[in-house]
Amino acid sequence: MDIDKAKVLTKKISGSEYPLSKIFSSEFDFIIPRYQRPYAWEVEQVQDLFEDLKDFAEAAPEEGYFLGSVVLIKEDGKPHSEVIDGQQRLTTLTILLAVLVNFLSGETDEDAEQKKNLKTYVIEPGNKWEGLAAKPRLTLRERDNSFFRKYVQEWRLDELKKLDASGLENEAQRNIQSNTAYIQSAVKKSFSNNEEALIRFIQFLLGRCFLVAVSTPNRDSAFRVFSVMNSRGMELQPTDIIKADIIGIVPDADQDNVNDDWEQMEVDLGRDGFNDLFSYIRMIYAKEKARKSLLEEFRQHVMADNLNPKLFVDEILKPYANAYDMIRTNSYVSVSVEKSKQINELLTWLNKLDFSDWVPPAIAFMSRMKYEPTEVLSFFQRLERLAAWMLSCRVNVNERIEVFANVLAEIEEEKSSAEITWLELSEDEIKQFVDVLNGNVYQLTPRRRSYIMLRLDSFISDKGAIYDPKILTIEHVLPQTITDDSEWATLWPDDEKRAVWVHRIGNLIPLNKRRNSSAQNYPFKKKREAYFLGKDNVSSYALTTQVLNHQEWTPKVVKARQKQLLEALKDNWRLHESALPDG
Question: Has this prediction a pTM greater than 0.90?
């Protein structure tokens, strides 16, 4: 490389370490661009930062504390600083400074003057002779800036605390409110009646806490720095880097619209949901188990082949986000009220599964066929049966991914629900499924047996029941162990017969966990009254209500009930031979 080229490159990227007193000064005018992610730190991250700062200030009074780095689009000698990475720390530190200002008494003239000086790290007071206008040191995204300025940078912290969180516009504003409240509480707890400690902490914060500001004069190089730094383990989600990649190639004329759409989807789904969506989109494209990071694979499978960023947002991301939102919230709506209700019931059950491999094909099909409720209903009926088989028969993750990859391939071929062969169960798989359902269900893992029992309860009820797995327990009617002098020993004298039936669905019922466990071995009639009945002598579960209608609990009753309940499962999950695909 020749000397002239080296000089040009060194001017493009620069990095220097600054104490916070310089970071929050007229040398920088921080602007969070509208295409950035929302303020996402929650109380947990803010608590970690505050306690770390406080502990370090006390333990190492002469040493410096490194806060990390920020990536800026900034020209040498000019304060305007577009923040590409670092808004979480800058915003949180601004809140901390605002709280510290508010905490100072300002009772004497000297105190008032020092309080005024501290305010300058939050608000540039302006200087006519230097051409500096009065304004905040940090300007948030357009959507949240007026909120942040009004309540934090104008010190209306008590008003902020009193706002109803449910009425705030978005997650970022709720985070600003909760984090400000936490810092107020932490500062009060740490420094009440200890002004000297407070002064030392503020001096430490401004003089011995350092940030490295990495500056580059244009957006392209800033995104490159951002992507490289954050792909090496700094605290950003993959979607933030993907967003930087995509926004970086959006034509200027489309940038505002693309950014607004992106931001609205992130608000609607929440940060975690939005990141989950991208992992599902990766699967839709790759159709195989992930072997690298989400960022690497998304770039490889989704962003390859000269991706058009606007078309990706309009024709892929928005439809998939809409479909995923309906799927995860059980909120499908169509012209058919009845079919919509049935579809949402199926989604409710799918969302109870302990794996989410079914979600990518659900998103792909829903986004394509959402205006065809008959097709959507058929698809989710078959998908829920397939997933229930996988859960009940302990199909491993690799096998699940392979099956759902094949379902995705058929969806990509624009097949109707009935034409997607990989949604079907083979004759051997149906037999395997029925054998599990007809076997010792109680001895399955808790998630598997709970799903089967509650799904069975839904099949024999009017399907209007609401199930809360947090208070659910699956119990035996005939106890697992009995004493020789009990009524159970008379009704069930054959040990081998008891062993055959005790753990099967015919002898199991769902109950709320609050039941008195001491009643488990009561005689049947007493157990029925003391143990099975719910509030007002009405059970919450259809299966339990059936048991309440019996006057005794004999092998004949259990055998007949086993047959009836197994038939209900086979009918509703279509596990008879007639349900097998042709050929």
Answer: no
